UniProtKB/TrEMBL annotation:
Residues 335-448 form the Glycosyl transferase family domain. Residues 1-24 form the signal peptide. PANTHER family: GLYCOSYLTRANSFERASE 25 FAMILY MEMBER, PROCOLLAGEN-LYSINE,2-OXOGLUTARATE 5-DIOXYGENASE/GLYCOSYLTRANSFERASE 25 FAMILY MEMBER. One of its GO terms (molecular function) is procollagen galactosyltransferase activity. The lineage of its organism: Eukaryota, Metazoa, Ecdysozoa, Arthropoda, Hexapoda. The keyword Mitochondrion does not apply. The keyword Transferase applies. This is Glycosyl transferase family 25 domain-containing protein. Keywords: Glycosyltransferase, Signal, Transferase. Belongs to the glycosyltransferase 25 family.
Length: 451
């Protein structure tokens, strides 16, 4: 035998011996369960868009940044009767992102017409509008069932899911219906804790503790909307509907979310609102006679409110050109000052972003840091404490931080007195929380002062 033949014979002997050893060992399937890596459940996301050009750049940015495999997500998008650039924004976003998802089913109807029959404005909801929305939501629900999706997520386009893990967290709860609690710039949210005999909102004592996260978890409530995740593998989900005609002896209003809530109730499927995380935010709905420009003001309110406790609402570079950036002014006065300690850069960053959103040209003033003050520096600055002075509230001498705060304001007012061009100024500190409609309220105050 040649050397090669000998080597080949040895190789086959080793392989056959290993196969014999492998085949002689028997393993239980339990031993291999931990080695399995499972794919994420499939999610069918249904999105209805109408006149949402102001929210879409932020909504779509949040959507694309969800930490969930896009190959396991199918998008179903419908848009019609728009008076703005909603369709153009959707088309631009889809041209970049559609290929990343398992599939996209998008139907856009160009306008005119801008209104449905009976509508008097973009925020008016006559029966024809409810009928249209009911039909679309039912089609989305049935399309998800037909695709054998594991979940369907009915997501409104004025919702901002700022938590990238939101979808993962909700899916893992394995609830028949799970909804992330969404905050706004007030008491409005996407759930009710009470429903009256006419099936409309009823104020209860349970609402605010859930809204303000005084108690956390997932709570069964009579009504949810705006970001409803339905587990389609739950057998009872087959009976869920938005169509009043599918419910026997239905006596409720012609309303999509109320019909859905009652169908869940009749089927015995609980509606869970989950507030165990800050999942995101939702816009306050417009009233009947409100304009689309008013919705832009409400978006400004919400963006400012988000920055109180969270990072700013972000928009991708792809869509940032769709976001209106207001021109800057001095709020009707000669100068706006903002006092900030250098050792608090996060507050400076937040305030600068607030000013950018509001369109305020503000001058940042480095505050006098009380931690750097001592008797020597105070003496050099010519600052002397009044003998025997105590804080009228705390009944104690002034602290260094309070002295620094006083000096910061003192130097600003000194500048105002010395600069004859400054007749009216506004002085803000870096922890200010801007009221909703801040600019409009400021205009009203200044007008009253002029009178």
């Amino acid at each position: 035998m040649t050397g090669f033949q000998i080597l080949l014979s040895v190789f086959f002997c080793v392989v056959i011996d290993n196969l014999k050893n492998a085949s002689s060992e028997v393993h239980s399937s339990v031993e291999f369960i931990d080695f399995n890596r499972y794919k994420e459940p499939t999610v069918f996301i249904a999105i209805l868009v109408r006149n949402k050009a102001q929210t879409l750049p932020f909504f779509l940015t949040c959507l694309e940044r969800l930490n969930y495999s896009k190959s396991r997500i199918h998008l179903w998008i419908r848009s019609d009767h728009n008076e703005d650039k909603s369709i153009e924004i959707l088309q631009e976003w889809l041209s970049e992102w559609a290929a990343h998802y398992h599939g996209v089913d998008a139907e856009f109807s160009n306008s005119p017409p801008y209104r449905l029959p009976e509508e008097t404005g973009p925020a008016h909801w006559p029966p024809s509008r409810y009928s249209h929305i009911i039909s679309l939501r039912e089609k989305a629900l049935n399309a998800a069932r037909h695709m054998w999706a594991d979940f369907v997520w009915l997501l409104d386009s004025d919702v901002f899911l700022t938590m990238p893990e939101a979808l993962t967290e909700l899916v893992q709860k394995q609830l028949a219906i799970a909804v992330p609690m969404l905050k706004s710039d007030g008491l409005y949210s996407n759930f009710w804790c009470g429903m009256n005999d006419d099936y409309y909102y009823l104020r209860t004592d349970d609402y605010e503790p859930i809204l303000h996260q005084k108690k956390t978890g997932c709570f069964s409530v009579p009504m949810v909307h705006s970001a409803v995740l339905i587990h389609l593998k739950v057998q009872q989900s087959d009976e869920l509907t938005f169509m009043p005609t599918r419910l026997a002896n239905y006596k409720g209003p012609h309303d999509d979310i109320i019909t859905f809530a009652l169908s869940a109730n009749f089927t015995g499927v609980p509606l869970f609102i989950c507030n165990d995380h800050i999942y995101g935010y939702v816009m306050v709905p417009l009233d009947k006679d409100d304009s689309l420009s008013y919705d832009k003001l409400q978006l400004t309110n919400l963006r400012l409110e988000i920055m109180v406790d969270s990072p700013p609402l972000e928009v991708s570079s792809l869509l940032e050109h769709w976001v209106d950036v207001p021109s800057e002014d001095h709020l009707g006065v000669d100068k706006v000052f903002m006092i900030n300690l250098l050792r608090r850069p996060e507050r400076r960053t937040r305030m600068k972003e607030c000013f950018r959103v509001l369109g305020v040209n503000a001058s940042v003033v480095d505050a006098v840091d009380g931690q750097l003050l001592n008797d020597t520096t105070l003496h050099e600055m010519g600052v002397h404490l009044m003998e025997g002075y105590v804080d009228p509230y705390h009944k104690r001498p002034m602290k260094r931080g309070e002295i620094g705060c006083f000096l910061s304001h003192y130097y600003i007012w000194k500048e105002v007195i010395e600069d004859e061009s400054l007749e009216k100024v506004i002085v803000l500190e870096d922890d200010v929380r801007f009221e909703p409609f801040f600019r409009q309220k400021m205009d009203s105050i200044l007008a009253e002062l002029e009178r």
